[in-house]
Design a protein that fits this description.
globular, magnesium, A-D-PHexomutase_a/b/a-I, six-stranded antiparallel β-sheet, metal-binding, seven-stranded mixed β-sheet, 552 residues, alpha+beta, phosphoprotein
Length: 552
């Protein structure tokens, strides 16, 4: 280290991986110490010290990978250097070669960041509780001592993993000889630019329209974060201009995949989870499994569990986090797992997540169908959802306690603490406007509370969302209970003065970003982008491009 203070890697060693700013927090020196610590950890684990090391296309990645390999070799490890790779490609190599894996990516983080994902042989996950904490301590000791003692016998050699990866994913999800499909893929100048062409050239009835396939760690077109709607604009425009059947957007290391339908609309990750769960359950049942298990994190739509049970499967709830989901999949021999963050896990892919396998499942389902993708997934998105809303708070535990105390006073509401706080108020016999649930959980890395709300009706979702946000953000609170309306055939006018039928009001969306609209004084405000659209004579005037500032 460059100063006399003890090394402290706690800011970059997270619950499930390592993530920090390259060159300052995550330097070559730190990567070398982590490589040595990983080799030491493996020597005391089943399977020994063999490992495969790969990296993404970020500017800092080759240097960090070389340093990591150097540290591991100094401690006697045998290292296969796989070079440029997607994270699921590295997981595949770990599974096929029964070797531990180390991937240098930063997923969807900004260009200046980098990171490290580690796994045991067979792509088995490593978390803070199962090894990362001890590796951090060992790496800090190496940094403090200023040297890494050498153990003879360490060696590194090149390893090509792409061909085996392509064979594996296409073997798991063969594409039927159905109709010809036009597919747009936005690789965001990241690792899908390597893996998608290699897979696509083996698909005879797919017309691929590539966007930003040139590997460039500066991300010249947009960040590789497909959960940010602004990063989907290029894909949306291309789907429409090309008359494509669907579009895919991958994150930086291509283990996550977001789907757009033929209209350019986002298909919710929960709908994709339900679609793939149906297919994987059917396949497992055809092979003789009575009730195949599927794991879904508790932030996923309620419809996911309903779909799993209707297909004859067993639903297993999970906390958020890939290590937790993989562990539950192994425990229950689950055939599939899905997260609201567009991570999808497959038993036959070593319980690992793969954006490519998810994309192939969607392509296969569409090829087998005579319908458009929007029609195919319509039944898998029946409820109104808020999406994930972050609030910065001083005391997350106290904020959750305030919300819990409030929820416990609501008749018929139930609370559980599997992952933060989940409150459910969903009686099948109750009126539709009284059916809702929400999850409020802490971020692993920031002083944030993450809120997800789902309800039978859009108006209910908005009401519950706004109340919980008011509690979290210490603002005036309105009731979670439904409001009686004098005119049953009209939506509550509220402050906006909108006097339209209820079914129309529930379907109104912001013309700029398609976000839901809430009542404000003499207008409707988008809950996503904040733009305000006036109500004149009881009629909402929804015109794209308004520039009024959001209400504070």
């Amino acid at each position: 280290m460059t100063d006399s203070r003890p090394a402290d890697l706690s800011p970059i060693v997270k619950a499930y991986d390592v993530r920090g700013e390259a060159g300052t927090q995550l330097t070559a020196e730190v990567a070398r110490a982590l490589g040595a610590a990983f080799a030491d950890f493996l020597q005391s684990s089943p399977g020994g010290g063999d490992m495969i090391v790969a990296h993404d296309m970020r500017v800092s990645s080759p240097e960090l990978a070389r340093a990591f390999v150097d540290g591991a070799v100094r401690r006697g490890a045998t290292v296969g250097e796989a070079g440029l790779s997607s994270t699921d490609q590295l997981y595949c190599a770990s599974g096929l070669h029964r070797a531990a894996g180390a991937m240098i990516p930063a997923s969807h983080n900004p260009a200046q960041d980098n990171g490290l994902k580690l796994c045991l042989p067979g792509a088995r996950p490593i978390s803070r509780d199962t090894g990362l904490a001890s590796m951090r301590a060992a790496a800090e000791a190496y940094l403090d001592s200023g040297e890494i003692p050498e153990i003879p016998g360490g060696v590194s050699q090149p390893l090509d993993t792409l061909a085996d990866y392509v064979d594996t994913v296409l073997g798991l999800v063969p594409i039927p000889e159905g109709r010809r499909l036009r597919v747009v893929v936005d690789a965001a100048n990241a690792m899908a630019g390597l893996t998608v062409p290699a897979v696509a050239e083996r698909l005879g009835r797919i017309d691929l329209v590539p966007l930003h396939f040139e590997l460039d760690g500066t991300f010249p077109h947009h960040p590789a974060d497909p959960l940010d709607p602004t990063n989907l604009e290029d894909l949306r425009e291309a789907v429409l201009s090309e008359g494509a059947d669907l579009g895919f957007a991958f994150d930086g290391d291509a283990d996550r995949c977001v789907v757009l339908d033929e209209t350019g609309a986002l298909v919710s990750p929960s709908a994709i989870t339900a679609l793939i769960a149906q297919r994987e359950i059917a396949r497992a049942r055809a092979a003789g499994e009575e009730h195949p298990a599927v794991v879904a994190n508790l932030v996923s739509s309620r419809h996911v569990a309903e779909t799993i049970r209707a297909a004859g499967g067993t639903h297993v709830r999970s906390r958020v986090g890939h290590s937790l989901i993989k562990a539950l999949m192994a425990e229950h021999c689950a055939v599939f797992g899905g997260e609201h963050s567009a991570h999808y896990y497959f038993r036959d892919f070593f319980h690992a997540d793969s954006g490519m396998l998810a994309a192939l499942h969607v392509i296969a389902a569409l090829a087998e169908s005579e319908f458009s993708l929007s029609t195919l997934v319509a039944s898998h998105d029946p409820y109104a959802s808020s999406g994930e809303i972050n609030s910065r708070v001083d005391d997350a535990e106290q904020s959750r306690a305030t919300v819990r105390a409030h929820a416990e006073r609501i008749p018929g509401a139930t609370c559980d603490d599997l992952d933060g706080l989940t409150v459910e108020h969903w009686d099948a016999e109750a009126p539709a406007e009284e059916r809702w649930w929400f999850s409020l959980r802490s971020s692993n890395t920031e002083p944030l509370l993450r809120l997800n709300v789902e309800a039978e009706l859009e108006t209910t979702m908005i009401r519950v969302r706004d109340e919980i946000l008011a509690l979290v953000r210490q603002q005036p609170v309105v009731s979670l209970q439904p409001v009686d309306v004098e005119l049953p055939h009209l939506a509550p006018a509220g402050a906006s003065g909108a006097d339209v039928p209820a079914w129309v009001r529930e379907r109104l969306r912001c013309p700029d970003c398609t976000g839901s609209l809430r009542d404000v004084d003499a207008g409707l405000q988008c809950a996503s982008c904040g733009r305000i659209h006036p109500v004149e004579g009881g009629i909402p005037v929804l015109i794209a491009g308004r520039t009024e500032a959001p209400i504070a």
